[in-house]
Amino acid sequence: MSWFKSRFLWGYTVARRVYGEIPGYPPGSRFLNRQAAYNAGIHRHTQAGISGTADGSESICLSDGYSDDEVQGDLITYTGFGGRDSNTGRHMADQELVGGNAGLVRDYEVGRPVRVLARESVLTGRKKDSWYTYLGLFFVTQWSWGERDGYKVLRFQLQAEPLDSYTPAEVAHALNRGEDLPPLRRNTVVNRRVRSAEVAESVKRLYDNTCQICGTQLKTAAGTYAEAAHIRPLGIPHEGPDILANLLCLCPNCHKEFDGHAVTVDGDGKVYQFGEYKADLVVHSQHQLDMRYLAYHREISEGSSR
């Protein structure tokens, strides 16, 4: 029996909220029903299409319920939840930017991947295909408001992560032909991005999305917004760590100035812009900044501050 045919998984683990991949259930894993996928932790709802809260949505499930959902190549157009009559499926009210809908917008803002589970009939067009396939990790690349039956609906575009997911077309082809799915070239970059997003969210929660330099708290349709700035940059040649002690919560303007070496912070927490005093850095009592990273940032910014 082929690998693809043999991975008929029931799922026996306890479902808990996890972003990114679920150990033991790689892309291409198949489930008899929604309950099995729930037990495995792939999608933590047996009815709802979005699993998440306003802080972030970790997974979605494609089913036959939404005629607006579209699958094309490596792209999925997904309709938000809410506003529909459970019996007729018609929209009876406007959808709202709350709960899992707001969570998908937050995923878009922070670049966090979303697991995608799909009923196989959506992929093949055959109603009899009632199993579910885990496609892998997708990223929300766009979101917008649309209209259906005279009411507002939310539409999300998700794109497959090439090395860590199967496109709907690949799965449909394998199902229709009874063939194996091609092996994935595993990409550790996505898992690092998941961990990085979690660290970034922690510093933003600590400051309630308020800039540590200027005190600005931006508001968007999905709520408040700020950015996590690495003090000592990641990667070659700086090799800064992706930890809370190496992060600041900044507004987009201050983030750009900090990364662009227009702004530095001295050992006493005083912020300077091109050598002129600007403000005192706000530091939460639970934020244990490592002053060595600020010193490193001053060193690499020295030529710009004069």
From TrEMBL:
YDG domain spans which residues?
Answer: 20-160
Keyword line: Endonuclease, Hydrolase, Nuclease
Record-linked SMART domains? HNHc, SRA
Q: What is this protein called?
A: HNH endonuclease
Q: Name one GO biological process term.
A: negative regulation of gene expression via chromosomal CpG island methylation
Which one of the record's GO molecular function terms can you name?
A: ubiquitin protein ligase activity
